[in-house]
Amino acid sequence: MTDLAKISFAATELADISNKTGRIAVVIAEDGRMAPEARKVNSLTRRAMSRLVEGPGWAKMKAGDVAVISYPGGMQVEAVLVVKLPRRPTVSEARKAGAAMAAKRGSGDLTVLAGNMGRVAELAQGLALRAYDFTDHKSGAPDPAGAITIMCEDPEAAAEAAAPGLAVAEGVFFTRDLVNAPANILTTTSFADQLVALTALGLTVEVLEEPALEELGMGSLLCVGQGSASPSRVVVMQWNGGGDEPPFALVGKGVVFDTGGISLKPAGGMEDMTMDMGGAGTVAGVMKALALRKARANVVGLVGLVENMPSGTAVRPGDVVTSMKGDTIEVINTDAEGRLVLADVLWYTQERFKPTGMINLATLTGAIIVALGHEHTGVFSNNDALATAFLNAAGAEEEGAWRMPMGAAYDAKLKSRIADMKNVGGRDGGSITAAQFLARFVKDDMPWCHLDIAGTASLKSDSDLAPKGATGWGVRALDRLIRDRYEARDQGQ
Ligand code: BES
Ligand code: MN
Ligand code: ZN
């Protein structure tokens, strides 16, 4: 498990600055005007700050960028990180500034001289999110993680304001750890065990095993895992922070490894399919965040955990299975397995919980990467109000999300000669026909969004708020959606 860096808040002690070790970060306004802390560092370093601000590089730095001054004279620290930031930064600038400091924090302590700047809570969240390093499978002693201290004007108020954002960051770390984990470690059963452990935070967690899934008639989900030595599971997580109103539902695709099954994927890059449980990982991260910040809402999170393997018992192309809903599905391509898993979990969620709305997340199609690259998740919905609310939440959190079309002409591609539908609709518009397949398992009046996170759950290069690998995309947006749409009422906002 990757722990959040320890972040504490303290009053500014100008006299202490020269004795700090590790690294120190100072915030300087865009016009180069320095607050007392920056002036102190400037005088200790015999005007190194002034030289930076007066030099040609300063104008080229954007708000939130960091310049590193290594081994400054007159101080103990190994580096001063100079952060360019307006006096009143936006949420985005503050978060990016925190992240930029974290990316350059080194392995020792980090002291941030935030002075009286605004948005210290967002700065702290940015710091926490970017200070992530997945070392579970590196041998040898890990670098001791340094302590992070943010010196600011009102440390008690800052700590209180930062707490919810840091709870959400913990949820993001949980998602990243799950998504980064290899498939021999994160099996269906060990994944379920990790979710059961969330009961310690006050969540109610149930694990449905194969006999129960058979009893429920989940022939669609079960066919995906039938070639694997790991048993299939559905895990139900409930957070009841909101009285007795019906819950909002989150549903995740949890394919712990996707070989493609009998429709085997090519070898090149197949190792990336350890992230094919990203939807389930995100649902888990959101549930953890809600519990940690004691959200005043009722939310259920359901995940379908399976492994898609080829074997003598695996489902074959041409097989027909029966879903819990009762519709029959001709499995044309065993690599289009995520929709088979979600079909049954979506149906079960509606039958059991009658939620006020439902959002599912899945690393569902390569086609969404062709359409949107790695910048935006594809958003498919039957309900403009829910889709808009989600897009607004994602926008506020700067998590890329883009609405995609749906319609009867796409749905027609799923017609099967021998069953009620087939599981693929051809190459063209592949992410949309996948969404149409899911829509067949959503009841008419149920507000629903499908988020195809195949391009955003894990990246090959560093991003603003995460190192390369799992991003935790969507945890912040969904947490905000729940906060704004379901908690706002009783907070009088
Ligand atoms: N898990 C994959 C989708 C995926 C691709 C996720 C790349 C992340 C990165 C999914 O199960 C899949 O294999 N989809 C097929 C569907 C096709 C057979 C209709 C695809 O996208 O090729
Ligand atoms: Mn697949
Ligand atoms: Zn898959």
Number of helices: 16
Task: Name the bound molecules.
Answer: ligand BES, manganese (II) ion, zinc ion
Here the CATH topology of the largest domain equals: Aminopeptidase
- The radius of gyration over CA amounts to 24 Å
List the domain count as a whole number: 2
Mass-distribution shape: elongated
Strand order of the largest sheet: 7-8-10-9-13-17-14-15
In whole angstroms, how far apart are the ends?
36 Å
Calculate the mean pLDDT score and round it: 96
**Poorly predicted ranges (pLDDT <50, ≥5 residues)?**
none
Oligomer: single chain
What is the C-level CATH assignment of the largest domain? Alpha Beta
Largest sheet: 8 strands, mixed
Give the strand tally.
Answer: 19
Describe this structure in words.
The chain is an alpha/beta fold and about 500 residues long. It has 2 domains: about 5-160, Leucine Aminopeptidase, subunit E, domain 1, CATH 3.40.220.10; about 185-490, Aminopeptidase. It has 16 helices and 19 strands. The protein has helices at about 35-45, 50-55, 55-60, 90-105, 120-130, 155-180, 190-195, 210-215, 220-225, 280-290, 340-355, 365-370, 385-395, 410, 430-440, 475-485, and strands at about 5-10, 25-30, 65-70, 80-85, 110-115, 150, 205-210, 235-240, 250-260, 300-310, 320, 330, 360, 375-380, 400-405, 420, 450, 460, 470. The strands form 4 sheets. Strands 7-8-10-9-13-17-14-15 form an 8-stranded mixed β-sheet, with helices on both faces. Strand 9 (about 250-260), helix 10 (about 280-290) and strand 10 (about 300-310) form a beta-alpha-beta unit. The longest helix is centred in the middle third of the chain and has 26 residues, at about 155-180. The chain is elongated. The chain starts with 6 loop residues before the first strand and ends in a 6-residue tail after the last helix. The model has no long low-confidence stretch (mean pLDDT about 95). The structure holds ligand BES, manganese (II) ion and zinc ion. The site of manganese (II) ion has 4 residues, from loops. Manganese (II) ion binds next to loops.
